[in-house]
């Protein structure tokens, strides 16, 4: 392993050394139970911090604070341009603290410092500024009623969009700060108040975000952060004062949240898992196809909901593709996220590494061939070699279940219709990509792919202006786009007789 590590900044070291607390009503407070969760560095497996394990009482305090802030109008009653300015200031503060936040994310999540700098932290100010601009564009419609129900009566009607209330934002561990912001920013822009629960394994940047939001001018109670495990998440979802849950994570947890929220008709937006296909037609230029597949499959060590984990490759280019991709995978360097030259970094936790390894073992037992990687290298840290699998029957779990690691299957096809059928043959439908320069085929196949996003000659690219979410069991609703605020509002019709 290469040891050219980035030295962590003094402010990151100081933050790690703090006694972390919950952020409720603009103040730090301990969990009522006093229980704590250890936080680890995935590159070494050593503990770097601990955070409170919030219980139901703590969740209740946070939701009560958010509810008070909402009812008081301290946020929802502000002119939208003032909310916009606070979010713009938050974007500036994230930019000002970019290196600190990036290092913190890498220390806690394990990912490459390059990704933390460019995506988790680097792309967040642009996203915040995009969403901030939407705060001043919340509109209703005016319209005439359509029938003359009462002879002689005249009506005029219009709609208004009102902030929905307290939003529970539950974030996963793969892009903790960025996905946390995907949830928090539109809720705040719409005038809602928020309780954010980061994953118990990656809570640190969310705690720093809470401080920065206060500094940016979000009044106390508007953004609260509770650290805790799935039980804290459950308590949030079940809380009667939470009007909406916005969640990114696994399909299993998404279903549990949808069921719990349905009990009291709390609104939900769910961005869930994927088992995303990439289809390479025979005209796809080999070098571009292989480089694209490497990024699609192994970016962020495969811990990406939209990662391409199933590659379908035209028979004509199959063996060259397999040779080139497996050689490239074997040549990737493993190392800690703080080493900018390392191409593959540790997975987020020991538990997750073991889960990914068990997916690989089951694939091997099922008759698939592992032609690159497949093992955890000796030594500390939660590493797994980038893994390429061929000859996997479509019915094997490796072709059907989300693995969420640096593991990819490659399957040949002779008939392009078979490739589309195999691509769609999964309960999930988050993303898919098609690699070809054939315009007619592109136009034919894009509508047939059952996925919330179809990329052509690229994969995993997301943009604040491009709606993102899933078909089928990959979720409900969309993040991003000019309608990003709508799920955080209720639509009220007003009818005036005159
Ligand atoms: P989860 O879906 O369990 O966790 C996501 C978030 O939900 C975390 O904050 C988690 O808290 C919280 N949570 C867990 N249970 C509940 C509950 N019942 N009610 C409310 N909130 C809850 O993901 P895991 O961490 O367990 O990862 C498992 C798998 O999920 C991965 O292997 C991957 O396949 C998939 N995944 C998909 C992601 C995506 O981007 N779509 C992101 C992350 C994971 P806590 O972490 O503290 O338990």
Account of the protein in words:
It is a single chain. The protein is an alpha/beta fold. The protein contains 16 helices and 22 strands. The strands form six sheets. A seven-stranded mixed β-sheet has the order 14-15-16-13-12-18-19, with helices on both faces. It has two domains: 2-272 and 476-497, 3-Layer(aba) Sandwich (Aldehyde Dehydrogenase, Chain A, domain 1), CATH 3.40.605; 276-463, Aldehyde Dehydrogenase, Chain A, domain 2, CATH 3.40.309. It has helices at residues 10-17, 56-72, 80-96, 98-109, 113-121, 124-134, 176-189, 204-216, 230-238, 251-262, 286-298, 315-330, 350-365, 397-400, 416-424, 439-445, and strands spanning 22-24, 27-29, 36-41, 46-52, 142-144, 155-163, 166-170, 193-197, 223-225, 242-248, 267-271, 276-280, 308-314, 369-372, 387-390, 407-413, 428-429, 431-435, 453-456, 471-472, 475-476, 489-497. Helix 4 packs across helix 5 and helix 6 (124-134) packs parallel to helix 7 (176-189). Helices cover 38% and strands 21% of the residues. NADPH dihydro-nicotinamide-adenine-dinucleotide phosphate (NDP) binds next to helix 9 and helix 10.
Oligomer: single chain
Structural class: alpha/beta
Quick one: biggest sheet? 7 strands, mixed
Unique bound compounds: NADPH dihydro-nicotinamide-adenine-dinucleotide phosphate
**And the CATH topology of the largest domain?**
Aldehyde Dehydrogenase, Chain A, domain 1
CATH architecture heading of the largest domain? 3-Layer(aba) Sandwich
CATH top level of the largest domain? Alpha Beta
What is the molecular shape?
A: globular
- Give the helix tally: 16
CATH superfamily of the largest domain: Aldehyde Dehydrogenase, Chain A, domain 1
What's the number of structural domains?
A: 2
Helicity range: 25-40%
Global Rg: 24 Å
β-sheet strand percentage: 15-25%
- Low-pLDDT segments, ≥5 res: none
């Amino acid at each position: 392993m290469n040891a050219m590590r980035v030295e962590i900044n003094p402010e990151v070291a100081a933050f790690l050394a703090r006694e972390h607390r919950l952020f409720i009503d603009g103040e730090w407070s301990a969990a009522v139970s006093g229980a704590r969760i250890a936080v680890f560095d995935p590159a070494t497996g050593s503990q770097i911090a601990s955070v409170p394990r919030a219980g139901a009482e703590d969740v209740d305090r946070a939701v009560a604070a958010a509810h008070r802030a909402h009812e008081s109008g301290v946020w929802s009653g502000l002119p939208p341009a003032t909310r916009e300015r606070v979010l713009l200031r938050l974007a500036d503060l994230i930019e000002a603290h970019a290196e600190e936040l990036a290092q913190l994310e890498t220390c806690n999540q394990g990912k490459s410092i390059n990704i933390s700098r460019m995506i988790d932290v680097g792309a967040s100010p642009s996203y915040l500024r995009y969403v901030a601009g939407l705060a001043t564009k919340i509109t209703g419609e005016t319209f005439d009623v359509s029938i003359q129900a009462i002879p002689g009566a005249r009506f005029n009607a219009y709609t208004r969009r009102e902030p929905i209330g307290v939003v529970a934002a539950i974030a996963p561990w793969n892009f903790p700060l960025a996905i946390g912001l995907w949830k928090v920013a539109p809720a705040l822009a719409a005038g809602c108040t928020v309780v954010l629960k980061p994953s118990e394994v990656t809570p640190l940047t969310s705690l720093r975000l809470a401080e920065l939001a206060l500094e940016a001018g979000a009044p106390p109670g508007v953004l609260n952060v509770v650290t805790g495990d799935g039980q804290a998440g459950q308590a949030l979802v079940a809380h009667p004062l939470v009007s909406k849950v916005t969640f990114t994570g696994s399909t299993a947890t998404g279903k549990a949240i949808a069921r719990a929220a349905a009990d009291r008709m709390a609104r939900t937006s769910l961005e869930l898992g994927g088992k995303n296909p990439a289809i390479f037609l025979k005209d796809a230029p080999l070098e571009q196809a292989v480089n694209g597949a490497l990024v699609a499959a192994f970016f962020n060590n495969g811990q990406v909901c939209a990662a391409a984990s199933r590659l379908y490759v035209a028979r004509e280019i199959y063996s060259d593709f397999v040779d080139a991709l497996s050689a490239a995978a074997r040549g990737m360097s493993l190392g800690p996220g703080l080493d900018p030259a390392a191409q593959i970094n540790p997975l987020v936790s020991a538990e997750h590494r073991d889960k990914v390894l068990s997916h690989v073992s089951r694939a091997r037992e099922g008759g698939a061939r592992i032609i690159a990687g497949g093992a955890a290298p000796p030594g500390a840290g939660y590493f797994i070699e980038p893994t390429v699998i061929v000859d996997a029957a479509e019915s094997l779990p490796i072709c059907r279940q989300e693995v969420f690691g640096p593991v990819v299957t490659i399957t040949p096809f002779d008939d392009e219709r078979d490739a589309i059928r195999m691509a769609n043959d999964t309960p999930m439908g988050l993303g898919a990509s098609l690699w070809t320069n054939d315009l007619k085929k592109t136009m034919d196949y894009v509508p047939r792919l059952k996925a919330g996003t179809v990329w052509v000659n690229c994969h995993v690219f997301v943009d604040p202006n491009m709606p993102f979410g899933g078909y089928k069991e990959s979720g409900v609703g969309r993040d991003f786009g000019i309608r990003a605020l709508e799920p955080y509002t209720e639509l009220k019709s007003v009818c005036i007789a005159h």
